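Honest question from a wet-lab person: if I give you the sequences of every part of a complex, can you actually get the arrangement of the whole thing, not just the pieces? Trying it with mine:
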Amino acid sequence: MPNSDDFRVKRIQKMLLEMAKGNFFYSIEPMDKNDNIASLVVMLNMVNEEIGAAFIHQGFANAHNTPQCVIQLSMILDANGQIELLTNGTCSLLSYPPKDLFGKHITEFMTERSRERWAKKMSKHFKRERSETVLFLEFITNDGLLLAKDCQISVYQALDGSGQKTLLNSVFFSKGEPFETGLPKNKLKVTKGIKEHKVTLTPEDIQIIRDVHDMIINNLDKDLPTLQDLARQKGTNEYKLKYGFKQIYGTTIFRFLIRERLRMARTLIQHSTLTIKQIIQMTGFKSKTHFSRAFKDKYGMSPTDLRS
Amino acid sequence: MKKTHENTFAVYLLTDHLLHIIYKKVPCINVKAAQLIVKDRMELQEGKVMPVLCDIREVRNIDKAARDYLALEGSLWIKKLAFLIDPPVTDMISSIYLDTHAQKVPTQSFTKKAEALAYLGIKETDDN
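Yes, you can. This is the full assembly:
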C-alpha cells in the first residue's frame, strides 16, 4: 500500500499544504522508483528547500516584514528512551495528539536510517553520567512526511533519583503567527542618525542584481569595475545596485566578492598542489598580507596552516 | 594515461581527455558527500582543466547544501560538463539544479552517452 500511486499523491498533497502554510521544514522520503510521481517528489523536495532557504535568509527582499516564528521540537525521554514529556509544538510538528506520543519509544517515530544512527551513536552517551551531542535525525510525521534536522541531545541524571533522562531539542522556522506585539517594532540603533537605506525593487531590478551576483561568482579572478561603471553597464543606477544588492543578499557587493574569493581559495588550498602565491593570483587578491589576514579572519587559521 | 578511483559515492574514470564520474546508488548526497566527491576529483585531476561527464542516473536525493557546494566550490577545473540522465527523476534533478544555480561551467544534460560525449567534443571509444 505505501507505494501505491494514490498513497504517494496524498503525501504530495500534504506536503503542498504544509508549504502553503509556510512550513518548509518537511520533506517526502524519496524512493528508488524512476517514474513521474517519484520525479514530482524530488522536485517538490528541492523546490521546498530553495524557497525555505530564501525565506529564512534575512536579507531577502521584503523579508524584514515577513512574520516568522520558531517552533520548538522538545522532549524528555526516560531511561528506556520512552517519551516522558513533550511540548505542544512537538505534537503539532509530528502531527500526533499527545496521547499517541506519551510513553512511546522515540525510535518508533524515526526512519530506519535514523533508528540505526540513534542506536549506534547514543549507546556511548547513555553510558555516561552526563553527555551532550548533536545528531541528525529524521522523524516521520503522522501524515507520512519527513522531518529531518540536527537535534541537540543531552543525557543527564534526574535529581530525584529516578534515573537517566534524555533531553532532545531542535528548532524550526515557520511563517506562522507574527511575533508578539509587545516586542519593540523598530530595531535598536547603536549610533544615532544612521540612515536605513531602502530601495523599492522592480522584478527587473532584482533580475539585474541577480545577474551582477552571478557575474561576480564567475569572474572572481578579475578586478571588479567601480559600482558606477557596473551600474551603467547593467542599465541601473549606483544607489539601486548598492543598496538593492545588500537588501537581496544581505551583504555588500565588496564583502560578497571577498567572501567568494576566499571560498575558492580555501578549496584550492585544500585540494590542489598549487602554491599559495598562485592561488592568490587566481583569486584576484592584490596583496599577500591582505589575503592572509582576510583568510585568517574568516576561517580562523592562516592559509599555510590549512595546507599543512 | 588511464586512472580510476572509487569512494562511497562515486566511481571516477580518468583518461587523457575526459573525466567520467559515475554516481553510485546511495540514500542521499549531503554536503559531506559533496565535499568528498569534489576533493577526490581534484586530487585525481591534479590541476588539469578538462571536460567532465557526470553520470547521475542513480541519484535519487541530493540536498540543498550539497547542490550549493557542487555549484560553487565544486566547479573548479571543469572545462565543460555533461550530465547523463534517465528521465523522469534525474531529468528533474538536473533541470532544477541548472535553473537555480549560477553556472560557472557550460553544462547540459543528455539521455544518450554518445550525445553527451559529442557535446564535450570527445569521440566515443572503448576507453570512456
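Two things worth pointing out. The longest strand of chain B covers residues 78-84. Residues 31-45 of chain B form the longest helix (15 residues).
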